[in-house]
Amino acid sequence: MGILIHFLIPLLLANFCSGSTNIRCSVPSSWLSGNPTIQRSTSSSGHVPYVSGINFYNTYLWTKWPKGKVTYKLDATLTAADIIEVRKAFNEYHTKTCIQFLPWEQGDVDFVNIERNDSVCGVAHVCKIGGYQFAQFGGNCRTMSTMVHELGHSLCLGHEHQREDRDEHLTYSSCHQTPSKDTHNWVTKGIYDYRSIMHYWCDANNACLGGRPTQSNVNNCGGAVTTGLSVMDVDGINSLYNCQGCTRHRWRPAQSLTQADRENLYNFGYYSQNGAPLYPCRAASRGEVSAGTFDDATKSCKISHGQDLVTITDNVEVLTIPGSLNWFCYKYELVSRAAASPRTAIPAGSSNWDKWVGYIAYASKSGTGGVTERSIGKVWTWTHSSFGYSADMPAASGNFFPSEYQVLSCHLDSQCMSMFG
Ligand SMILES: *[C@@H]1O[C@H](CO)[C@@H](O)[C@H](O)[C@H]1NC(C)=O
Ligand SMILES: [Zn+2]
User: Fold this and answer.
1) Where is the domain boundary, 240, 257, 272?
2) Into how many domains does the chain fold?
3) Residues with CB under 6 A from ligand 1
4) 241-261 pLDDT per residue, tens
5) Does 153 show up as a binding residue in the annotation?
6) Where does the pLDDT of residue 29 fall: very low under 50, low under 70, confident under 90, or very high at 90 and above?
7) Which CATH number belongs to the domain containing residue 213 in this structure?
8) Predicted structure pTM score
9) Which segments of the protein form a coiled coil according to its record (predicted)?
10) What DSSP line would sit under 32-58, residue for residue?
11) How would you classify residue 202: left for phi > 0, otherwise alpha for psi between -120 and 50, otherwise beta?
12) What is the domain extent for residue 162?
């Protein structure tokens, strides 16, 4: 029995971490439980931001990187191939968030040393701890995906599958081990994100460290379905670090919209048939996180799944755009399908089946007697170049799938810029 267990543990872990031996995939538990040697008190006031679908450390106790600027050093243990993976991981943050990884310069005190350590799959200090800290990857885990995960820890992110409410989304029955639930320093809110890069894999054949999804149509989790940051990882980081520009939109909980949130709702001229302004919402439904039409009266999100019109009331989020639609020339607007690009479109959710990301589509349907029904729905794409697919739009008179629609987008308006000289 003893032999069996000793044989099984590294083997099962190896499946999760792609074949490395003697590996450890998590941060040490002492780093996750508010160990006083690395605990920092940044402020006694201020608020913990609502961060959708992501688990992160209470920012009273842990230090974020000021202005999202993370100083790094590349350790001599890294091979040229490792450095390529590390740079891909940096690029993932640089293209989707306001986080900047900046090379160490003379005089920089706090920095993340990026290291290779073949005794681990990946491990990193959580938040900025002061002075030297590391993010390590090793063995066959030396990939962009592992490094995006470890750098998530550097930025204060915790594990999604250790959220306090994870038992509503995962089962660990008949799993080899059950990771703890972190209840002490964690803030756990928002839509559960099976695709978060901070979620361990949920393969049926591995040690089951990421648990088994209980939501139907969710087949796997974390890096098994997302090589980089998930849509909700990006939203969470942009909220945690108060990112601006085209990363200033925030998905807010429908059940607790504040007056300030309401002032940041925009309907782009879209009204329901009884004159209520229409806003985008998103919710988990059928294994996906989908954009739909928000119904303020019932705080529900109406989502189209082919012919089925689904009304979700749990964990609905509504899109807010703080700072007006045109803020320092960073302009949110609707763009026609033909002119829209996934590079500038606002992502709302993702499919759990594959790499597809869902964006926010606006369209109108002419019904009987010349009545027009306006709708907000989703359009999926996996390419980075264009929107080639029909949108999936909810409508009381029957869902519709237009090839002509508009996509909510944001870009830096150069004409506006030129007015500032
Ligand atoms: C490599 O990882 C192992 C296991 O966590 C640790 O004991 C060792 O100190 C690490 N090596 C370095 C150089 O950090
Ligand atoms: Zn981790």
Assistant:
1) 240
2) 2
3) 24, 117, 119-120
4) 889 999 999 999 999 899 999
5) yes
6) low
7) 3.40.390.10
8) 0.88
9) none
10) HTT-TTT-----SSS-PPP-TTEEEE-
11) alpha
12) 2-240
